[in-house]
């Protein structure tokens, strides 16, 4: 239990320091007339031209009402594995095209929903949720110890898993 509280405290510190940094950034941008591009900040570099939802709740709502599957990417800005996956994800033309068919959310913090960490809170991890709001435990990567982890070398597996998520939708609804 001790380890967990350390991790929680550490994450809290990251969140607090990020929040402070954001506020500092806001003051500077008030003087400039150019409006910040909204989607780019929400994409956090995973696909600047894609439409990203802002919160988990919004993502669930949209998935349910649009009948599209939801893809959630958990990552951290200072995690080299997250950065590496983000790079190949953003540069993969087919993935970026296919991603348009999903409700998209990327998170740099954990939600309180335990369903999003079926086998632990590691990053990067990618989960698919269908419009019935069920986490698809059947769409996994190739690591038995971290089912939803993907390395840059697994990008084609991630692509086929995205296709699988869309196919399942057609057969089940």
The helix/strand order is HHHEHHEEH
Poorly predicted sequence stretches spanning 5 or more consecutive residues: 22-32, 35-39
Tell me the structural class: mainly alpha
Span of the ends, CA to CA = 42 Å
Characterise this structure.
Pfam families: Thioredoxin_7. It is found in: Endoplasmic reticulum; Secreted. The chain has helices spanning 2-29, 38-43, 56-66, 80-91, 93-98, 155-172, and strands at residues 70-74, 103-107, 125-129. The chain has 173 residues and is mainly alpha-helical. It has a domain at 56-166: Glutaredoxin (3-Layer(aba) Sandwich), CATH 3.40.30.10. Strands 2-1-3 form a three-stranded mixed sheet, with helices on one face. The protein is globular. The model is unreliable at 22-32 and 35-39 (pLDDT under 50).
Describe the protein's topology:
Blueprint: H1 2-29, H2 38-43, H3 56-66, E1 70-74, H4 80-91, H5 93-98, E2 103-107, E3 125-129, H6 155-172
Parallel strand pairs: 1-2
Antiparallel strand pairs: 1-3
Signal peptide: 1-21
InterPro entries: AGR/TXD (IPR051099), Thioredoxin-like_sf (IPR036249)
Subcellular location: Endoplasmic reticulum; Secreted
């Amino acid at each position: 239990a001790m380890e967990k509280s350390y991790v929680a405290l550490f994450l809290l510190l990251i969140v607090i320091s990020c929040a402070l940094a954001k506020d500092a950034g806001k003051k500077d941008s008030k003087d400039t007339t150019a409006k910040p591009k909204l989607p780019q900040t929400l994409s956090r570099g995973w696909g600047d031209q894609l439409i990203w939802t802002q919160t988990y709740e919004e993502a669930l709502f949209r998935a349910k009402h649009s009948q599209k599957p939801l893809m959630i990417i958990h990552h951290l800005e200072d995690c080299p594995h997250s950065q590496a996956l983000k790079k190949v994800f953003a540069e993969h033309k087919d993935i970026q095209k296919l991603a348009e068919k999903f409700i998209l959310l990327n998170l740099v913090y954990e939600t309180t929903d335990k369903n999003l960490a079926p086998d632990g809170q590691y990053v990067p991890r990618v989960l698919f949720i269908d419009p019935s709001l069920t986490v698809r435990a059947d769409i996994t990567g190739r690591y038995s110890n971290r089912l939803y982890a993907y390395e840059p070398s697994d990008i084609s597996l991630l692509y086929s898993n995205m296709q699988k998520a869309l196919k399942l939708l057609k057969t089940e609804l």
